[in-house]
Hints:
The protein is α/β, with parallel strands linked by helices and 255 residues long. The protein has 2 domains: 8-60; 86-253, 3-Layer(aba) Sandwich (Rossmann fold). It is 29% helix and 21% strand. It contains 8 helices and 11 strands. The protein has helices spanning 18-28, 86-92, 108-115, 127-141, 144-148, 161-166, 193-202, 208-218, and strands at 8-11, 32-33, 44-49, 52-57, 98-101, 119-124, 155-158, 174-177, 222-228, 240-243, 247-253. S-adenosylmethionine (SAM) is lined by residues 103, 105-109, 123-126, 129, 160-162, 178-180, 198, 202, 205, 207, 211.
Amino acid sequence: xxxxxxxxxxxxxxxxxxxxxxxxxxxxxxxxxxxxxxxxxxxxxxxxxxxxxxxxxxxxxxxxxxxxxxxxxxxxxxxxxxxxxxxxxxxxxxxxxxxxxxxxxxxxxxxxxxxxxxxxxxxxxxxxxxxxxxxxxxxxxxxxxxxxxxxxxxxxxxxxxxxxxxxxxxxxxxxxxxxxxxxxxxxxxxxxxxxxxxxxxxxxxxxxxxxxxxxxxxxxxxxxxxxxxxxxxxxxxxxxxxxxxxxxxxxxxxx
Length: 255
Ligand SMILES: C[S@@+](CC[C@H](N)C(=O)[O-])C[C@H]1O[C@@H](n2cnc3c(N)ncnc32)[C@H](O)[C@@H]1O
């Protein structure tokens, strides 16, 4: 279990069922606070607000907090399946049906892939991100459009994808990787708050080379790596590469 000692706590401010907060604090082995005082060393907090599990830092305490967003992105068509458009859809190609999002994080890429009609399995090793993402997936499962279309929302497995991919019984067509790369500058003004907080909480993913090699072995047809545009391709020269805004999708074929 990842250690959050001195970094993360659960915060209960009188909203909702206290036992839910206590269980969360126990699962993550972190303290539960009812107020924030100056003596508290933790700088990240998990709390349910408006029925969403939110991640807060001291700056966000009075603002909203960060949640797994289950709404379609700006400009994405609100139909299911959404049209397969844009560089991520191009990277996925035409023959793919099943995708493992092996670095699920906030679930934004995995959910985008799901909304385009692919079957998605998410893997995430950080227990705190798993709590946030599972909360988002639970909310998604209750959305009208999901219920009307009788869709199964993506399944989430908590663990290291390096081990889980090695043990997969059914080979997915595609494995999607978006590990954390060191930032180009210390704190870029352009980086999204959710990603800055994720990096502060979890640090960089130093085993991404091993993850890539395992993914290439485990995928049926292709591996896609999302990289910042300044980073070297993770698996050497890709077979195809699609440019997004400040990022690339590098595609590695299996055959
Ligand atoms: C940059 S974030 C991914 C963001 C995600 N694509 C999104 O759209 O929200 C990277 C995430 O991958 C997870 N991760 C990195 N290496 C992993 C591994 N070997 N197994 C499981 N999760 C991993 C990290 O814990 C982190 O939450």
